[in-house]
Amino acid sequence: GENVEQHPSTLSVQEGDSAVIKCTYSDSASNYFPWYKQELGKRPQLIIDIRSNVGEKKDQRIAVTLNKTAKHFSLHITETQPEDSAVYFCAASQTQGGSEKLVFGKGTKLTVNP
Amino acid sequence: ETGVTQTPRHLVMGMTNKKSLKCEQHLGHNAMYWYKQSAKKPLELMFVYNFKEQTENNSVPSRFSPECPNSSHLFLHLHTLQPEDSALYLCASSQRAGGDTGELFFGEGSRLTVL
After folding, report:
1. Which residues have C-beta within 8 Å of that of residue A42, sequence separation ≥ 6?
2. How far apart are CA A61 and CA A76, in angstroms?
3. What is the C-alpha to C-alpha distance for residues A84 and B7, in angstroms, rounded to an integer?
4. Could you report the per-residue pLDDT of B39-88, keeping only the tens digit for each?
5. CB-based contact B90 A44, cutoff 8 Å
6. Contacts of B41 in chain A (CB under 8 A)
7. Does pLDDT of A14 surpass 60?
8. Which one of A36, A45, A100 has the shortest CB-CB distance to B96?
9. How many Å is the maximal CA-CA distance in chain A?
10. What's phi and psi for A74, nearest 5 deg?
């Protein structure tokens, strides 16, 4: 089955700096790679996703890159703000018959210091 | 609001008790999921239902018994649990048919403590 590794487990940056979180996956058949943000005490929420026919996707200050050959993908946050502090989870999946079997990484706790 | 509600939000039970977690989605989605979130294994998939049919059982012990009477409701029946089952149980739903993404919409979770 799919296995997703995520690094680093914790990341501390100064406000305004960039943050990068990296994930690798094992199953070459995976074709969907979302990123979820979970603030303390709240539910995980999708912030950006990418499919295997795209190499990069950007949405304002966040971007995700995908390297299918190397089986890794990364989340980039620029101009970080204190409200970006949260746990970020990457995931990989294949769509199966109309539902997603997402396998998540262990999460990265990002702290943005004012 | 994401449209996925879970009850109860907190539950404390003994190892011999029987209890149930409930999830309801108001989004018209066709797939529903149970995830377990603990410090050791964050966001671990347990069960997947697609159009109320179970499509995934991720080697979950039989002391966890899911039930999906329709596409909007999902239950997790609990019996003879172990202390290591203490965790946050998250329900989620998604809509894939005809959609462009498989975004999961999570509920707030049910915090379970097994004594």
Report:
1. B108
2. 8
3. 29
4. 877 799 999 888 777 877 778 999 999 999 998 999 999 999 999 999 99
5. yes
6. 106
7. yes
8. A100
9. 46
10. -135, 150
Q: Is A95 in Cβ contact with B102 (below 8 Å)?
A: yes
Q: Residue A101 pLDDT more than 60?
A: yes
* Cβ–Cβ gap B106/A93 under 8 Å: no
Q: Is the pLDDT of residue A24 over 80?
A: yes
**In the sheet where B64-70 sits, what is the strand order?**
B4-7, B18-25, B73-79, B64-70
The alpha-carbon gap from B43 to the nearest alpha carbon of chain A, in Å, equals 6
**CA of B19 vs chain A CAs: smallest distance (Å):** 23
Tell me, what's the pLDDT at B58? 78
Average pLDDT, chain A: 93
Closest Cα of chain B to A100: distance in Å? 6
Question: Between chains, do B104 and A44 touch, taking CB under 8 Å as contact?
Answer: yes
Residue A10: is it exposed, middle or buried by C-beta count within 10 angstroms (0-12/13-18/19+)?
Answer: exposed
Confidence band for B3, pLDDT divided at 50, 70 and 90: very high
Structure tokens at A113: 């210091």
pLDDT at B90 over 90: yes
Interface test with B, best of A45, A99, A104 (most B CBs within 10 A): A99
Number of residues that make up chain A: 114
What 3-state class would DSSP assign to B10?
strand
